[in-house]
């Protein structure tokens, strides 16, 4: 018998930074199988609802109140299944209605750490079934000598320092939550006099012009918090048009306001998740906005400087480079480079 047995309430958990987000990663087998019991446990783990999440391990912001649940793949086309859960900070909500490409960056390393996938001698590629959108991503990262290497020389905006590159390749991301790339059936719609493009290439996003909200599009994230009251009615209406129903409690669609690039990029963005300003932009959010501006007639198309498949998305804290290849009106593939870091591996004790 262990000299210091853990209380039965403890849950094995790996805390990781994935891209520009931070989350608690769990093996599915370590959580209750019943979704209601699982969500109740996760609220107590993260310390929600509470703006400071003081009694849990959540970071008091949507970007740091995230969970990945990982299990051996049920299907033959992938190695592991990854379910993303967004845990509300001030609200007692746990939603699976969106994916997260940042937390995705930590899933391959987690699968190796927990012995779900055998590492290669130099690099390891893991086929990840993203349960939320029923699509597959391939993650490739260094594993010299069969051990995940987190250190490296790749810098990503909004994260200090450098770390090892993790390449993420996506297929079948069209219509991740809404069923189609242009869920309203139109490349452009008008909501309360505001021109929008509603797109879903991995993340449902409403793209609108920054100028239509009386801003330049170059403001800091902090300066944009005041726009929440104007973003919300637009996204509520967009949610209905996109077939997402009543999105008043949902974390999607996101909204991205665009302006002409001013730092050598493809397009300049300011994103709201769903009404709080993002300090950068989500991965699949950037893939979706990048896809929109490639499309003739979409909001932002005429502002974008497109030079190929690599799209440099400017955001409040720098740039996010994504690759999007279109085949006519369909997406052939998309991809991105991220980094991740193992922060803490242990047992989390949720409040009772
Ligand atoms: O779009 C934030 C993030 C995200 C999601 C959000 C993401 C993505 O920055 O793939 O990564 O949109 O809520 O982590």
Automatic annotation (TrEMBL):
The family this protein is said to belong to: Belongs to the PrpF family.
Gene3D superfamilies (alphabetical): Diaminopimelate Epimerase, Chain A, domain 1 (3.10.310.10)
Superkingdom: Bacteria
SUPFAM superfamilies associated with the record: Diaminopimelate epimerase-like
EC number: 5.3.2.8
GO molecular-function terms, A-Z: isomerase activity
PANTHER family referenced in this protein's UniProt entry, alphabetically: ACONITATE ISOMERASE-RELATED, ISOMERASE YBHH-RELATED
One Pfam family hit: PrpF
Protein name per Swiss-Prot or TrEMBL: 4-oxalomesaconate tautomerase
Primary enzyme class: isomerase
InterPro entries the UniProt entry points to: OMA_tautomer-like (IPR047687), PrpF-like (IPR007400)
Record keywords, A-Z: Isomerase
Species whose genome carries this gene: Amycolatopsis alkalitolerans
């Amino acid at each position: 018998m262990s000299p210091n047995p853990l209380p039965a309430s403890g849950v094995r958990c790996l805390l990781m930074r994935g891209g520009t987000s931070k989350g608690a990663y769990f093996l599915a087998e370590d959580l209750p199988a019943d979704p209601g019991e699982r969500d109740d446990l996760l609220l107590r783990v993260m310390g929600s609802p509470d703006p400071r999440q003081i009694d849990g391990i959540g970071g008091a912001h949507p970007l740091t109140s995230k969970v990945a649940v990982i299990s051996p793949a049920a299907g033959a086309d992938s190695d592991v299944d990854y379910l993303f859960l967004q845990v509300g900070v001030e609200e007692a909500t746990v939603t699976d209605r969106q994916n997260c490409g940042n937390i995705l960056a930590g899933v391959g390393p987690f699968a190796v750490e927990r012995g779900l996938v055998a590492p290669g001698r130099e690099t390891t590629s893991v086929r990840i079934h993203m349960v939320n959108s029923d699509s597959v991503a391939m993650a490739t990262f260094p594993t010299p000598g069969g051990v995940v290497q987190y250190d490296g020389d790749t810098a990503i905006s909004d994260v200090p320092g450098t770390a090892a590159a993790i390449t993420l390749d996506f297929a079948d991301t069209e219509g991740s939550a809404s069923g189609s790339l242009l869920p309203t059936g139109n490349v452009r719609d008008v909501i309360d006099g505001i021109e929008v493009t509603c797109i879903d290439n991995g993340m449902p996003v409403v793209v609108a012009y920054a100028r239509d909200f009386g801003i330049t599009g170059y403001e800091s994230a902090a300066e944009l918090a005041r726009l929440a009251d104007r973003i919300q009615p637009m996204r509520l209406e967009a949610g209905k048009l996109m077939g997402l129903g009543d999105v008043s409690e949902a974390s999607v669609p996101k909204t991205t306001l665009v302006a002409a690039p001013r730092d050598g990029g493809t397009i300049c963005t300011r994103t709201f998740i769903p009404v709080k300003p993002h300090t950068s932009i989500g991965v699949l959010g950037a893939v979706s906005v990048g896809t929109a501006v490639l499309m003739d007639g979409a909001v932002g198309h005429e502002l974008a400087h497109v030079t190929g498949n690599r799209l440099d998305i400017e955001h409040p804290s720098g740039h996010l480079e994504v690759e999007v290849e279109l085949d006519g009106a369909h997406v052939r593939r998309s991809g991105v480079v991220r980094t991740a870091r193992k922060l803490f591996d242990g047992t989390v004790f949720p409040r009772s």
